[in-house]
Structure formats: structure tokens, C-alpha cells
Amino acid sequence: MNLSKFQERLSELLFEKETNPPALAKELGCNRSTLNRYLFGSRMPSVEFVIRLADNFNCTTDFILGLEDENRAQEFLPVPPFKDRFPVVLEHFGVTRYRLAKDAEISESCIYTWQRGGKFPSLDSVVKIAEYLDCSVDFLLGRSKE
What we know:
single chain; 434 Repressor (Amino-terminal Domain); 2 domains; globular
């Protein structure tokens, strides 16, 4: 994933909303220094944080990540646990865990852990999966139906 696109888009959204990092951090209930690390590209945000940002700015996760140039703002669905959403997505695309692991170069043990609900995938993994399946990050996460 290209962090510079995310940084740029987040800065643009802050400007458009006429707010600043301290105000946004307070609004999201996060530490200002954490938000600054995202803004300066020294840290990659979690998927959960990107969802919170997208909800706050009423934009798609794909837009805020710089994967799409147009914000297709819409009504977003509540994000289900990834362990529940992931098998639905694999079935929708007719892809096995094994094929996904091999083709997208993601560890099978990571995929197994996600399906068991052990942890949420990294942002980098989510973007890789969405690119491999040729779908939006929002669809993969269950925020949108398409």
C-alpha cells in the first residue's frame, strides 16, 4: 500500500472539513501523536482506524486510502467481524483460502487466524486481497454491497 497517497488524502479531507489534527484526534477519541504519525507517514493505520476515518469524513475506505480518485459517498453498512465476512467474500468470488494465499502471497497461517477471529488483517493485507479479488476495500470489509 502507498502510504503517501493516504497521507495526502487525509490532509485534503482535513482541509475540506476545515478541521485540524488535534480536533480530529479528539473527535475520534485517539491520541494526537498517533494521528500525526499517520499524517507524516511514519506509521500505517489499522483497518479499524481507516474505517473510523472514512465514517467520520463520510467517504469510502478506498477513497481515503487513495485507491480511488472519486468519493462515492453512500450509506455504509455496519462492518461485521472479519471472521464472519471473510468466508462470505471467498464464496462470492469462488476462491479458496489456499488459492488466495498462493496468488496474493499471504501466509496461510494469517488467513487461518483471521477466519478463527484471532485478529483483524493488516491494512496491507486487506488492500492485497481487495486487489486480488478486484473489489473495493469497502466490499471486502462489508461496508458496501458492491
